[in-house]
Amino acid sequence: MEFIMIGLLSLALLFGGMSGAKTPPTPTAVEVAQAMENVLEAPESILLSEANVTTASQLLAALPEPEKRIPIAIYAITDTTGQLKADGGAASTVVSQGTTEMLITALQRSRQFAILDRVRFADLMNEQNLVTSNRVVPGQGPVPGQLTGARYMIGGSITEYQVSKETGGIGLVIAGKGGSQEYARATVALDLRVTDLTSGEVIWAESLRGEVLGEKVGIQLFSFLGKNIVEFETGQGKQQVINLVVRTLLEEAVFKLVQSRVLTN
User: Given this model, what pLDDT does residue 171 score?
Assistant: First the structure.
């Protein structure tokens, strides 16, 4: 019945007229099935989302997939810049709180690791505790005592952050344009480390720093990579640019980690 209702809704959207138009006849089951099939054949005509990738994403996609993935525990990526921003009257950290999720995505895109989420471990344990306390139907839910063990853990922090306006000289070129001009610079640095959980030794560490330049497109407006607009008077758009640099650096860091070959299975 649920699928029939979805089909009817699809047909209504496809064939519905303007307000006041004659009500179309109720579609048959065959028409509903055909409409649903047409939607599935061309989902791109409906989907709003697009892949959130960076220039470094192709490095991870090019890595050969191993026969067996390396178990690694993920812990939070923290903001140690000490910078705060006003957010609805409250102060919050400048750097994205989604940095840990970006790292998980980068590790997943590399296809090298069995990723063990320790950031939301309390939620996982809550689900297991529902089973051990007999609060779910017997035979349903997770099986206690079957968690995958990690050999390594990865964590780190954002250590630098800056978005500033500057004036370039003759040698500066942004978006194919040279000459002396005002421009914007977004800079981020992060430090990651991997620890062997048996010995407690830090076996890999990397500090990366990256920046992107923004072209001036208005009195206080700067465009980064042709689509991310920052307004310096209000600060609007800064977060999106910083997130772009952070995601790129994390993907590059994961690529360097894989290439180092310090992790074994």
Answer: 45
